[in-house]
Amino acid sequence: MIGETPLAYDPQFEGPIICVKGLRNSFGDFVVHEDLDLDVRKGEILGVVGGSGTGKSVLMRSIIGLQKPDEGDVKVFGESLLGRSDAETVEIRKRWGVLFQGGALFSTLTVAENVMVPIREFYPKMDREFRREVAKYKVCLSGLPPDAAPKYPSELSGGMKKRAGIARALALDPELLFLDEPTAGLDPIGAAAFDSLTRELQQTLGLTVFLITHDLDTLHAICDRVAVLADRKVIAVGTIDELLAMDHPWIQEYFNGPRGRMAAPKQG
Ligand SMILES: Nc1ncnc2c1ncn2[C@@H]1O[C@H](COP(=O)(O)OP(=O)(O)OP(=O)(O)O)[C@@H](O)[C@H]1O
C-alpha cells in the first residue's frame, strides 16, 4: 500500500532521479498526454522541448504533484508520489526547487522574504536570524547583488526577477531543479548569462535539472540530453546529435530549420 511505504532518504539510490511511466493527463475530452514515459538521469541537465501546448508544463506539474494524472506512475528519487498526501510527500518536496514560468514571485514580499517562504514552510522552527542569513546567501548564489535582497519584484529587471526565482528555488539546498522557460523574455546577453548560471549551479551543487525551454541556444549551450514532446508523449530523448540522426519531421524541422541551424555550434 502506497501510504505505508516509508519515505526514507536513500543516499545509495542510483536509479533515474525522475521516472515517469504510462502517464495520461486530460482536461475534459482533451487528452494532453497518453502513455508518456520519461527517465531523467542523476546529474544531467535535461532539456524538454515541444511545440506550444504539447504539455511540457503539465508534465512538470504532474511530476511535482500539482497535476493529478488520470493514469501512470511518477517516481522522484525512487519514491512514488501519486496517491500520497502532502504530508507524506513533504520529505521529497524538500529535495527539489522550482522556477515557474515568469518567476512567480510574491509581489508584496521583498526578494529575501520570497526566498524565506519555503524555508518558513518546511522549517518553521528555524531561528529568524538564521533564516535571513540563509536567504542572503541564496541571493548571492543566484548572482544578484546583495542590495537586491530588500527590493520588491517590481523594482527588478526581468533577468533579476528570474535570478530571484532561482534564489528561492535554491532555498532548501535542493538536489533537483525544475526550470520552466527560464530564459523566455530575456535579451540574448541576459539569456546567455542565465544559461551560464544554470550550468555553474548544476556543476558546483551537483544538481539534476529538468529544463523546459524553447530556446535553441540554451539547448546547445547547456543541455546534456533533450526530450522531445509530440503526439502526446515523449517521442525521443538523446543528445542533439542523436536527435539529429532521427528522421522525425518535427525534430528535423526544429533542429535543422533556419533557427536550429543558426543556434548550432559552427563546425571547424
Ligand atoms: N488547468 C488546465 N485546464 C484546461 N486545460 C489546460 C490546463 N492546463 C493546461 N491545459 C492545456 O493543456 C495543454 C498543454 O499545456 P501546457 O501549458 O503544458 O503546454 P506547454 O507545452 O507548456 O506550452 P507552451 O510551450 O506554450 O508553454 C494546452 O492545450 C493547455 O491549454
TrEMBL record:
Sequence ranges assigned to domain ABC transporter in this UniProt record: 18-256
Annotated keywords: ATP-binding, Nucleotide-binding, Transport
PANTHER family membership: PROTEIN TRIGALACTOSYLDIACYLGLYCEROL 3, CHLOROPLASTIC
Cited Pfam families: ABC_tran
Protein name per UniProt: Phospholipid/cholesterol/gamma-HCH transport system ATP-binding protein
GO molecular function, one term: ATP binding
